[in-house]
Amino acid sequence: MNVILAIVALILLTIGIVWVIDKFVPKKIKPILNLVLWALIIFLGYITFNLVYDEIKFNQLKEERFKIVIEKLIDIRDSELAYKDVNGKYTDNFDELIKFVENGQVPITQRRDTLVLDEERTAAFGGVETMKTLTLIDTLDYWNLKDSIFKGSDRYKSMMNVGIGKPGAKFTLKAGKLDEYPVFEASVEKSVILADQDKDLIVKENQVVSVDGVNGSALTVGSMDEVFTKGNWPKSYTNKE
Question: What pLDDT score was predicted for residue 164?
């Protein structure tokens, strides 16, 4: 943006010089100077247009790529949540997560309360029957992650691959506990997604702080610093949140 403003200021200055020449320079050399200065104005205008247009194209491509990557991060998140439902923790191993999607079954449960005799309290009250409430969890059925989330698609087999930007790039996957609560985080740097783009525009994107943009230098779902399973992108990037 600073470069664009500098070029615009230079164009305005050049126009001012043309006006001064028109008013005060002798007629003999005026046409040549005017021609040179107008050529400079056109050249600077062309550069300014390209700078603005390049940024517009960059933003369009960025949004397209981010949407593709976000869909993959959501697949990872949904797989991790199902994995935790069965195993009580998340995993930082993609091979293990893929194997779970392929073969694992997630129980469909139902909670219900029932009254039973509290033998200790009954004895304490001299045989007067005292009841207590127990919560029972019944397993009604099982559902297959591959069929439910991935609808028969085998894209889960390559969920570790970013698939766009830097060739061969993979997501970073972490898992652990925070105050005894299971946590996970999957992420990829923006510079990886936009590896073939202008470096200055990537640096600018990494500094984004906006409610309509992806803040920070990476696309991330989950967190190792808080119990959080959402992504760091705005709702406009997907309808799955």
Answer: 94
Which among 219, 161, 221, 164 is positioned nearest to 197, based on CA atoms?
Answer: 164
- Looking at this protein, which amino acid is placed at residue 220? T
Within 10 angstroms of residue 145's Cβ, the number of other Cβ atoms is 23
Residue ranges of alpha helices (H) inside the chain are: 2-24, 30-87, 94-103, 119-124, 145-148, 190-193, 199-206
Nearest CA among 174, 188, 187 for reference residue 89: 174
The per-residue pLDDT for range 26-75, each reduced to its tens digit, is 566 666 666 766 676 677 666 666 666 778 889 999 999 999 999 999 99
Q: How far apart are CA 216 and CA 208, in angstroms?
A: 6
Instruction: Locate the domains of the chain by residue range.
Output: 2-52, 53-237
Specify the pTM. Answer: 0.70
Neighbours of 7 (CB within 10 A): 17
- Across residues 101-120, what is the average pLDDT? 70
Query: 132 forms bridges with which residues in the sheet?
Result: 116
